[in-house]
Write a structure and sequence with these properties.
It is built from eleven helices and 13 strands. By secondary structure, it is an alpha+beta fold. Helix 9 packs antiparallel against helix 10 and helix 10 packs antiparallel against helix 11. The longest helix has 18 residues. The chain is globular. The structure holds flavin-adenine dinucleotide.
């Protein structure tokens, strides 16, 4: 149906689309309901081999090694919270899912919707960035796999074509201690002011939300920490990487300070 008419808007849990319709910010009026597509559900282990048609698939992502966890795009936050597999392999994703909205939103909102909605404040996005996840895109003409860190091209834009659906998210094995923190006016039902995910292993990885037009993989700050630099140097590197703005939820200055503080807390708590 999307191949025939790429102007159709897919809906999954509809928790973002409904808000757009309610506030008149979405002008779309024709939708395609993904909810009954069980093929886009399920959380399982798959052989960790990036496959696909994209040049990204051959050049980006992790080296094939072991098993990746594959999370169907229609997995809800509740599915993620309850999954023993995600709890074991990607606890930072469970921590982020627990802080999305309230129970109603967790029961209905999906991981695919959070990614496709492409808000810089999407709570799962820093986790997927720090996890070096891959996005499986599917259309009538085939499937391609894109490294999550190559997916967004700017504010609310991505490499996804209108005729493509997000089918699944694949997360390779993560070597290191995982960490997640959301800063908002309260823990749930409030959109984040700043949130950070980190992995502390042989390679340090840090990703931050709401400090740039898209989720930011803070590679300069992480590189300082990876080579044993001081937290002050890492914070200085972070300062040069982020570009937070003033908006209704916060000021740029506040976000900058919080981002630097979070980096120090990540480092301390994963010591
Ligand atoms: C009260 C409330 C609280 C919220 N709190 C939070 C929060 O704390 N943190 C947070 O991150 N978000 C929050 N949200 C936003 C929202 O719940 C999430 O972004 C959620 O993950 C969206 O998923 P969905 O399935 O409902 O998406 P939908 O609304 O169905 O779709 C969102 C967008 O994604 C597209 N889309 C959906 N699935 C696919 C797919 N498989 N392939 C291609 N395109 C697709 C749709 O076309 C649409 O553009 C909140 C929303 C509300 C209403």
């Amino acid at each position: 149906m999307l191949a025939d008419d790429p102007t159709l808007t897919p809906i999954a849990g509809c928790t973002d689309v409904l808000v757009g319709l309610h506030f008149g910010t979405l002008d779309k009026r024709r939708f395609i309901d993904l909810w009954p597509l069980d093929d886009l559900r399920g959380i399982r282990l798959v052989q960790d081999k990036p496959k696909g048609l994209s040049p990204h698939a051959r050049t980006g992502g992790d080296k094939p090694s072991g098993l990746s966890i594959r999370i169907g795009a229609l997995a809800t936050f509740t599915d993620i919270i309850k999954s023993a597999l995600v709890q074991r392999r990607v606890p930072m994703l469970v921590a982020a899912a627990r802080e999305v909205g309230g129970a109603q939103i967790q029961n209905r909102g999906t991981l695919g919707g959070n990614i496709a909605n492409a808000s810089p404040a999407g709570d799962t996005l820093p986790v997927l960035s720090a996890a070096n996840a891959r996005i499986v895109l599917r259309s009538a003409s085939g499937e391609r796999v894109v490294p999550f860190n190559d997916f967004y091209t700017g504010y609310r834009t991505s490499v996804r074509q209108p005729s493509e659906l997000i089918a699944a998210i694949e997360i390779p094995p993560i070597d290191g201690r995982q960490w997640w923190r959301k800063v908002g006016t309260r823990r749930a039902q409030a959109i984040s002011k700043v949130m950070m995910a980190g992995v502390r292993g042989p390679e340090v990885r840090v990703a931050i939300g709401s400090v740039a037009p898209t989720v930011l993989h803070a590679s300069a700050a992480a590189a300082v920490l990876s080579r044993g630099g001081s937290i002050a140097d890492a914070q200085a590197a972070l300062r040069s990487e982020i570009a937070p703005i003033d908006d209704i939820r916060s000021t740029g200055d506040y976000r900058r300070q919080v981002a630097e503080n979070l980096l120090a807390v990540f480092w301390k708590e994963t010591r």
